[in-house]
Known about the structure:
With 464 residues, the chain is α+β, with helices and mostly antiparallel strands. Helix content is 45%, strand content 28%.
Amino acid sequence: MSSTSQGIPGLPDLTHPNELLQFGTQAVQASLLFVFLVIALGVAIALVSFSLRRHPTEQAVFFGEWAIRYSQLLHGLQHLALILILLVVGFFLCSTLSNRYHHWEQAQVAQVVESVAGDRLEQTAPQVRYVAQQPYTYTTQVNGKIVKINDTQEVSRYLSLTGSQIQVKLDQSVDVKGRSSVYDIDYTAEYKVVNPLTDITNFFFEVPPPNGASLISGYKVERENMRLQQTNPGDYGFPFRLEPGAETTFRVSYQAKGGPRWVYNATGKLLSKFRLTAIANFSPVDFASGISPSETKVEGRSTKFTWAFDDNVSVRNPFGVFTNTQPIRNTGILPRLLLLAPALFLWWILLLYLSLPMSLKNIAIAGGIFFACLLTLTYLGRLINAQLVWTMISLVLLTLTWGLGLNRRDSLAAIVCTITGAVLPVFGLLVPLSGLTLSLAGLLSAVWLAIRHWYSSYSWQQER
């Protein structure tokens, strides 16, 4: 299994049985150590009290003072233990969700890549070839002497097309097993050729079928409405005769299957009076490569792309049509948020502790609500915008947080703590300006605590 399918490397995932067993073992060991320390402290207090049994007054003072402190310590340790449990369980829950979401995002990216990658139908521009005699000189040895010989050799040269009128109709089949999509091509083209030479009359019109086609049917080459026949099977060079200064027209047509892209490759040759019209009868669709069309016209689900070059233009990159896909943006945001969620929960609980009295029951309920909101955000965020989802969840969170207060003042304090300690930080990690939003949340938290304890503590205590 690849690292992509496993999720984020090195991050614990409770869906893996070996990691779940390892986490359970470590949790039991930590719990036993914690219980042992608490019991050891109680035994130490008892031993000191027993050693002072001959001094009843000192024993009563020591035992009474330390009994109160021990009771307060046990009460504080209960809160600490509950928060640690919520943090640890929340961390493993969030790390598991982060792994799952990362895996889902990578699968989405791989699906998009598969839809635009792979084979393509590529039609190469035809060429007009002729054979010319070219003089050349070589040396050889005759009777022990070096002799220079002048001779001629046949070389292939090419004429430029004087006009190209191409129309290709594209239909898309998406229900094809093992393929993202398949194009059905109906290709028709007319090419004009002029003989500018004075001593050459024999030529070859070479027009190969498209590369990457899984099926080609109805392949036909015509000259002046007369069909040309192949001289050799598999040879797509058609001989013809053209007098000096004369002009002729070739028509090429075929149907093909392949894809999921169609491009025309001019192979860097000069294009003169060139016009290519590609009609895509599906949507969404866009032009391929960086050669933008001269005209784009949309009619319903059909899109018409036109490339027109009147003067001599050299186009080096293939250009054409491909099935457009919506880009996947903002990847990695929710996995990052989930990894930081335990720290946000700790900050929120700290604000609540510093703002209003908290019981063990309230802490447990608040922790459950917080991580349940993140769980909802993780899965609803796959369907609709994550910022919108968190806005709706925040309204529910604020409504439930109102019940943490014993009176109206405490409820308002709980609302302020939730906004500055939970709602804004989570929202800040979902938007592009994360640093600014988190800084604003931290500033508001500090201002709230200052107002709460420096300027309003006396009036609040009077009300209580």
